[in-house]
Amino acid sequence: MRRDSRLSGVLHVLLHMAEQSGPSTSQALARAMDTNPVVVRRIMGGLRDRGYVGSEKGHGGGWTIACDLGDVTLRDIYDALGRPGLLAMGNRTEAPGCLVEQAVNAALGETFDEAEALLLRRFGEISLAALSADFHARLAERGGSPALEANHAA
Questions:
Q1: To the nearest 5 percent, what fractions of the chain are helix, strand and coil?
Q2: For the chain, which terminus, N or C, has the lower number of CB atoms within 10 Å?
């Protein structure tokens, strides 16, 4: 089963965008996310609707960060993406007639719900600023510069 990597990809490009002084084109972001610019525009449009990014059309235009990274959490971005499924596992059937399978579904369902609640709560505790600080700490350990690392996304 293929995993949904949109959250990871969007967080990746948002942090690169935060390091840049100017706008990032959909084409450049698509390269960084290994996807199509149309997909990027759809995703970024949802983030723009929530005020996380801004966009400018025309020559020299593109996408920019429009929020304070400290005010936006992973949960906010996850919600803006339409709350994609968190777990790849699920019940074999949703309404089984077998009592054994009903017992299995009840145990798994409760456990899945608890795991998702924990994950979502943790997402709400991590800001984009915390991710940016982690990036800068890793960069300092390596002795690099943000400008060199930003070229990776362009």
A1: 60, 5, 35
A2: N
User: CB of 52 within 8 A of CB of 65?
Assistant: yes
The residue assigned the tokens 């505790």 is 125
C-alpha–C-alpha distance, residues 66 and 87, integer Å: 31
Q: Distance from first CA to last CA of the chain, Å, rounded?
A: 30
CA dist 129 → 33, 52, 74, 108 (Å)? 20, 13, 10, 35
Alpha carbon separation from 13 to 10, 93, 95, 131, 146 (Å, rounded): 5, 38, 41, 12, 14
Say if residues 130 and 74 touch (Cβ distance below 8 Å): no
Contact 16/152 with Cβ under 8 angstroms?
yes
Alpha carbons 127 and 55: distance in angstroms, whole number:
22
Report the predicted TM-score, pTM, of the whole model to 2 decimal places.
0.84
Sign of CA dihedral 5, 123, 43, 83: positive
Contact 30, 62 (CB under 8 A): no
Burial annotation 130-152 (CB, 10 A radius, 16+ → b, else e): ebbeebeeeeeeeeeeeeebbee
